[in-house]
Amino acid sequence: MKAKVYITPKEGILDPQGVAIERALPALGFKGVTGVRVGKYIELDLPGGGDAAAEVDKMCKKLLANPIIEDFQFELVPE
Amino acid sequence: MKAKVYITPKEGILDPQGVAIERALPALGFKGVTGVRVGKYIELDLPGGGDAAAEVDKMCKKLLANPIIEDFQFELVPE
After folding, report:
1. Contacts of A64 in chain B (CB under 8 A)
2. Residues of chain A positioned with their CB less than 8 A from the CB of B34
3. Residue ranges of the domains in chain A?
4. What number does CATH give the domain B2-77?
């Protein structure tokens, strides 16, 4: 079982990488792009057995994401 | 139009963040997790008009991803 985890900065949390990208885009010819938010995308392979969704949820809370400033979502992809 | 961009290290490129996570998981009670790869997840709002897919493709190649060591995929979500 493969898991794909999407981690984003929470609404209202300053995202300096997003601000930097948003400022750089017009100079490259991309006008009018707004709301740039930069997060993390993590792929991992889970061992068989057990409740995969519960495991990934725990991994996110304990290690992959910082729940104080980040939201996370994930999907499980059977192989 | 919203774009969601997924950037991953190319196959064979060393991913130190992924290695660090993979080594940390067993100590937290998650056994047998392999193939951890850490990339970036970027959300942005595009202005209307023009060929959104072509624009985002160009943004990825010019700024968001490093095509030498990273792959990217994106999806467009109408609002």
Report:
1. 21
2. 44-45
3. 2-77
4. 3.30.1280.10
